[in-house]
């Protein structure tokens, strides 16, 4: 019924010339079936019940369709012209009016969007994968701090900061065209079943960003000895340029089949050396030896820590950011409530998989100031060391003098 009505609005169906005359001859008393439409006579008047078609509307206005042209023959009998191709063409004026209405409505909506005021922070694309800057040696990416990335202090958690560092490192390798398989493996590394693993990490946090802030992360790589690579990060407020976080890390290669450390093959060195910067670390190396804790020297111990499936990375071992969360599991609650993590030094000694069960040990050092230092150890239940660490804590809301940081110039 709907299809018939729609079709008839563009292709009106006209009755045959003798239809009017024949109807008059056939109409009489009683009920007559006209193709399913019943008619009855009541009090001498003929009442016909039919489905009336409502006039079409365009933009809320009724459109009146002119009646079909009627002709009369020599005997004065009315008839419609014969159906031809010309008089069966649709009423294009109705179609054009509908199209015009749609375009006008779309243009109005577009202009309303264009009139909205633009804020400076709206010009920053926090969803892009970043870009290569400074002669192709530095990778830069922006991140918008989400509501699910902040903690009880209404600031981004240390895990959020570390995830941003890891993401930019991978995107840097991908943008350089060296990301083939695994986390940052180059084509030659894939041929030799080699992957990168971090052995040492130093992080200094001057200020944690808050919800809605946009941070700019710059990262680059440098040589470190004969078989290692150093990666540095500089995190700044995208609006002010204030330095928020500085981090430096050392990476070595491991055979993903034997799970043993490997020397850097010359073929791999040839792939990555063109991307090295000859610069100093953004964090001065802390040469103090990390303390090995045991049951007698540790003040706080958290046992029974197990990785979830989501804690594993594509290389099938626990993501290094998860280790940071584990060492903080044994940090005393009073410190977490009154202080915030300002720096940490981590040494990764052994990987762990999904079946590992770990213990977190912490010892607190009292240096007589408002700042607190903690020693950490993460170990397997069997006793093997997974990671050693040292963390520095400052009182919350402490005034930190922020500096406008610059990327170290390449002195190569």
Automatic annotation (TrEMBL):
<keyword id="KW-0378">Hydrolase</keyword>
<feature type="domain" description="Acyl-ACP thioesterase N-terminal hotdog">
    <location>
        <begin position="136"/>
        <end position="271"/>
    </location>
</feature>
<feature type="domain" description="Acyl-ACP thioesterase-like C-terminal">
    <location>
        <begin position="298"/>
        <end position="394"/>
    </location>
</feature>
<keyword id="KW-0934">Plastid</keyword>
<feature type="domain" description="Acyl-ACP-thioesterase N-terminal">
    <location>
        <begin position="1"/>
        <end position="125"/>
    </location>
</feature>
<keyword id="KW-0276">Fatty acid metabolism</keyword>
<dbReference type="Pfam" id="PF01643">
    <property type="entry name" value="Acyl-ACP_TE"/>
</dbReference>
<keyword id="KW-0275">Fatty acid biosynthesis</keyword>
<protein>
    <recommendedName>
        <fullName>Acyl-[acyl-carrier-protein] hydrolase</fullName>
        <ecNumber>3.1.2.-</ecNumber>
    </recommendedName>
</protein>
<keyword id="KW-0443">Lipid metabolism</keyword>
<keyword id="KW-0150">Chloroplast</keyword>
<keyword id="KW-0809">Transit peptide</keyword>
<feature type="compositionally biased region" description="Low complexity">
    <location>
        <begin position="7"/>
        <end position="19"/>
    </location>
</feature>
<dbReference type="InterPro" id="IPR029069">
    <property type="entry name" value="HotDog_dom_sf"/>
</dbReference>
<dbReference type="GO" id="GO:0009507">
    <property type="term" value="C:chloroplast"/>
</dbReference>
<comment type="similarity">
    <text>Belongs to the acyl-ACP thioesterase family.</text>
</comment>
<dbReference type="GO" id="GO:0016297">
    <property type="term" value="F:fatty acyl-[ACP] hydrolase activity"/>
</dbReference>
<dbReference type="InterPro" id="IPR045023">
    <property type="entry name" value="FATA/B"/>
</dbReference>
<feature type="region of interest" description="Disordered">
    <location>
        <begin position="1"/>
        <end position="44"/>
    </location>
</feature>
<dbReference type="GO" id="GO:0000036">
    <property type="term" value="F:acyl carrier activity"/>
</dbReference>
<dbReference type="Pfam" id="PF12590">
    <property type="entry name" value="Acyl-thio_N"/>
</dbReference>
<keyword id="KW-0444">Lipid biosynthesis</keyword>
<comment type="function">
    <text>Plays an essential role in chain termination during de novo fatty acid synthesis.</text>
</comment>
<dbReference type="InterPro" id="IPR049427">
    <property type="entry name" value="Acyl-ACP_TE_C"/>
</dbReference>
<dbReference type="InterPro" id="IPR002864">
    <property type="entry name" value="Acyl-ACP_thioesterase_NHD"/>
</dbReference>
<dbReference type="Pfam" id="PF20791">
    <property type="entry name" value="Acyl-ACP_TE_C"/>
</dbReference>
<dbReference type="InterPro" id="IPR021113">
    <property type="entry name" value="Acyl-ACP-thioesterase_N"/>
</dbReference>
């Amino acid at each position: 019924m709907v299809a018939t009505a729609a079709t008839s609005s563009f292709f009106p169906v006209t009755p045959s010339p003798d239809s009017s005359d024949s109807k008059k001859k056939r109409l009489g008393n009683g009920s007559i079936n006209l193709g399913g439409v019943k008619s009855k006579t009541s009090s001498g008047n003929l009442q016909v019940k039919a489905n009336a078609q409502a006039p079409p509307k365009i933009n809320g206005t009724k459109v009146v369709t002119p009646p079909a042209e009627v002709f009369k023959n020599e005997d004065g009998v009315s008839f419609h012209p014969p159906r031809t191709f010309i008089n069966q063409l649709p009423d294009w004026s109705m179609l054009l009016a509908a199209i015009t209405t749609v375009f006008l409505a779309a243009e109005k909506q577009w202009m309303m969007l264009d009139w909205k005021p633009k804020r400076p922070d709206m010009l920053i694309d926090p969803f892009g994968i970043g870009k290569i800057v400074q002669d192709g040696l530095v990778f830069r990416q922006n991140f918008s701090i989400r509501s699910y990335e902040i903690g009880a202090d209404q600031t981004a958690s240390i895990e959020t900061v570390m995830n941003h560092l890891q993401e930019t490192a991978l995107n840097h390798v991908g943008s350089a065209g060296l990301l083939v398989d695994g986390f940052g493996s180059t084509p030659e590394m894939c041929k030799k079943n080699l992957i990168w693993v971090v052995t040492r990490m130093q992080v200094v946090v001057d200020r944690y960003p808050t919800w809605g802030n946009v941070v700019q992360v710059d990262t680059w790589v440098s040589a470190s000895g004969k078989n290692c690579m150093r990666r540095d990060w500089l995190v700044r407020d995208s609006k002010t340029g204030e330095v928020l976080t500085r981090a430096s890390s050392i990476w070595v290669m491991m055979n993903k089949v034997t799970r043993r450390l490997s020397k850097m093959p010359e073929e791999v060195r040839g792939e990555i050396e063109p991307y090295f910067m000859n610069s100093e670390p953004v964090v001065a190396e802390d040469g103090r030896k990390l303390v090995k804790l045991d049951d007698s020297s540790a003040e706080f111990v958290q046992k029974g820590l197990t990785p979830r499936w989501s804690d594993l990375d594509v290389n099938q071992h626990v993501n290094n950011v998860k280790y940071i969360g584990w060492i903080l599991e044994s940090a005393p609650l009073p410190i977490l409530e009154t202080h915030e993590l300002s720096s940490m030094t981590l040494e990764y000694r052994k990987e762990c998989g999904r079946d590992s069960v770990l213990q977190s040990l912490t010892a607190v050092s009292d240096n007589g100031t408002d700042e607190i230092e903690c020693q950490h150890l993460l170990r397997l239940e069997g006793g093997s060391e997974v990671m050693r660490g040292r963390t520095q804590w400052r009182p919350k809301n402490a005034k930190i003098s922020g500096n406008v940081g610059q990327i170290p110039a390449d002195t190569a």
